[in-house]
Q: What sequence folds into this?
């Protein structure tokens, strides 16, 4: 009975965590060191409740870590601390701690939750993502002009769905994660409900008018279509076709008033991103130490001109691989990439559709570095945490 109450309490906390994620950037709290999110406070509480399991899982994970992994951890911590000591700027330290906190929490959930409880958590993530999509559609219909948000430091979007994320690119990738989550339930949900929610999520994806999201969606749909065809999953292939048709038709018919954001053929943002990333690449040009070992993960070669530097996405490279090279150098990147490949293969063996949407996130991260955006990061690591453990790990 005590164990049942304990699991119920843990699920309740995780449910609260997912609910706060639904609020997106609206749960953001301004603090002296930049920004804090309400869901992080819930996350801390969850770890306090699971403190003994947390320590045990981390120790077991460290014992199982290969030598190359331990070297990578040492390089990462050393680079961040060196950057902090030499620059006096603590942003990289705080963001590294956030990344570790999110990842380790997901590891604890994966290792300690029973599979039936993981399914409840995944259902909560699905409900949360659908709620974010509904918020995006309602905002697009009734408040399409959100250019006033520039007064508060956000980008000024016009006739694009941004929802509670306040950004069409990040909303798009969360909705795509939700669509992948939905399709993992394709054999358990009524076909009409499955199709209806697929259409809703597809409408939201189209309304973001995010080219990075469209490219990501195309990659995900292509991989999943081939997988479903081999597995003869006709219902899932039908959902992919429906989603594709809805997205294309919606993009064609939705209004596109004057403005660069709704112009799918715009080139200025592409030039801006390339120029921006060149600055990060050139910061290592004449320093062999930085070329080999980087400048510290989450560090930046430039200073923020904004009062709240946590909203300044220009402090990081837009391209994920440029971000890795600038932060970890050639040595750190060479150690990390094989680990990512092995992890991707393991996920594919467990649940291919989740592996395919992760490939989508990597595609998206080549343009927006959305991999570590706090809300997006939380969604994808928690989704991974809901994977069933292989029999060899039980």
A:
């Amino acid at each position: 009975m005590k164990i049942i109450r304990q699991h119920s309490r843990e699920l309740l906390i995780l449910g609260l965590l997912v609910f706060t994620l639904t609020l997106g950037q609206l749960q953001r709290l301004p603090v002296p060191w930049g920004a804090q999110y309400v869901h992080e406070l819930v996350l801390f509480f969850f770890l306090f409740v699971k403190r003994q399991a947390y320590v045990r899982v981390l120790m077991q994970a460290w014992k199982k870590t290969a030598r190359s992994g331990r070297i990578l951890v040492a390089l990462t911590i050393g680079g961040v601390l060196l950057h902090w000591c030499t620059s006096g700027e603590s942003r990289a330290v705080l963001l590294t701690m956030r990344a570790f906190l999110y990842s380790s929490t997901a590891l604890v959930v994966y290792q300690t939750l029973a599979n039936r409880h993981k399914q409840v958590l995944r259902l909560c993530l699905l409900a949360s993502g659908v709620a974010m999509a509904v918020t995006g559609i309602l905002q697009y219909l009734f408040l399409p002009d959100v250019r006033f948000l520039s007064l508060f430091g956000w980008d000024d979007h016009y006739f694009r769905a941004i929802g509670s994320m306040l950004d069409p690119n990040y909303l798009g990738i969360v909705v795509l994660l939700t669509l992948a989550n939905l399709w993992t339930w394709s054999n358990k949900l009524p076909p009409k409900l499955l199709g209806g929610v697929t259409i809703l999520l597809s409408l939201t994806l189209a309304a973001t008018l995010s080219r990075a999201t469209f490219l990501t969606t195309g990659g995900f749909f292509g991989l999943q279509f081939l997988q479903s065809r081999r597995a003869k999953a006709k219902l899932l292939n039908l959902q992919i076709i429906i989603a594709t048709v809805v997205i294309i038709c919606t993009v064609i018919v939705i209004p596109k008033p004057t403005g660069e954001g709704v112009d799918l053929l715009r080139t200025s943002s592409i030039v801006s991103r390339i120029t921006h990333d060149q600055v990060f690449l050139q910061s290592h040009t004449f320093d062999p130490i930085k070329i080999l070992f980087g400048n510290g993960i989450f560090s930046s070669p430039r200073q923020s001109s904004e009062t709240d530097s946590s909203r300044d996405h220009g402090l990081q490279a837009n391209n994920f691989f440029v971000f890795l090279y600038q932060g970890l150098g050639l040595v750190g990147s060479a150690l990390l990439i094989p680990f990512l490949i092995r992890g991707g293969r393991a996920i594919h063996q467990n649940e291919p559709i989740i592996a395919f949407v992760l490939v989508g996130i990597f595609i998206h991260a080549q343009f927006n570095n959305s991999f570590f955006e706090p809300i997006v990061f939380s969604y994808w690591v928690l989704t991974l945490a809901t994977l069933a453990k292989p029999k060899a790990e039980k």
